[in-house]
Amino acid sequence: MKVSVIDIKGKETGRQVELSDSIFAIEPNEHAIYLDVKQYLANQRQGTHKSKQRAEIAGSTRKIKKQKGTGTARAGSIKSPVFRGGGRIFGPVPRDYSFKLNKGQKRLARKSALSKKVAEGNFHVIEDFSFDAPKTKNFIEVLESLGLDNKKSLFVLGGSNKNVYLSSRNFKGSEVVTNSELSTYKILNANNVVVLEGSLEGIQETLSK
User: Is 47 left (phi over 0), alpha (psi -120 to 50) or beta?
Assistant: First the structure.
């Protein structure tokens, strides 16, 4: 599959790049996508939620009323969950939400996500660029030239580029990552995926294993 390369002005450069059909033109596996996105979101959870149980409540331990003769249920502690201010029954406790997912399945999910973007026409390849200094204005000009200023976009760089990253940091509608940071969730969360020409080799090498 061949895709045209455009410049940061949104104009055709006259060049084309070859994309591997085994990565960018496969039948998407929806279940693999579901599992990878689920794992990504699960890994973002801190799992620090906690409520006090009966043994952790501060309060008197004296018996609050006599055992029999009151006409109501027996009660031995003010910390009982049936009373206001008592401990919580089966409340949340700190836990780890992460789970294991095979590398092959994660690769399949990323290939499926990329194939969906290509099939939808929301995948673009632009020539490599950089900025002399980190300026949000420069990055916004690139987005406007590509017609992405009002859309969520994901830019994939071939390597670390501090000026481009810092220029995009204040712009909430767009995210800049390197090819090693590419994830299924980030691909699907963006309306358009913009891949720099220099990052294609790394993407294809990683996903062809």
Answer: left
- pLDDT tens digits, residue range 24-61? 999 999 999 999 999 999 999 999 999 999 999 998 88
- Can you give the CATH number for the domain in which 112 is found? 3.40.1370.10
Question: Is 41 found in the same domain as 80?
Answer: no
Q: Extract the tokens encoding 7.
A: 């410049």
Question: pLDDT of 102-131, one tens digit each?
Answer: 999 999 999 999 999 999 999 999 998 989
Q: How many helices (H) and strands (E) does the chain have?
A: 7, 6
pTM above 0.70, yes or no: yes
- Residue 3 carries which DSSP code? E
Residue 42 φ/ψ, nearest 5 degrees: -65, -35
Measuring CA to CA, which residue among 2, 4, 208 is closest to residue 110? 208
Identify any residues that bridge with 5 across adjacent strands, giving them in sequence order: 125
Residue whose C-alpha is closest to residue 137's, from 98, 167, 116: 167
Asked if residues 23 and 114 have their Cβ atoms less than 8 Å apart, the reply is yes
The sign one gets for the Cα dihedral 37, 125, 111, 96 is: negative
**Which amino acid is it at 114?**
L
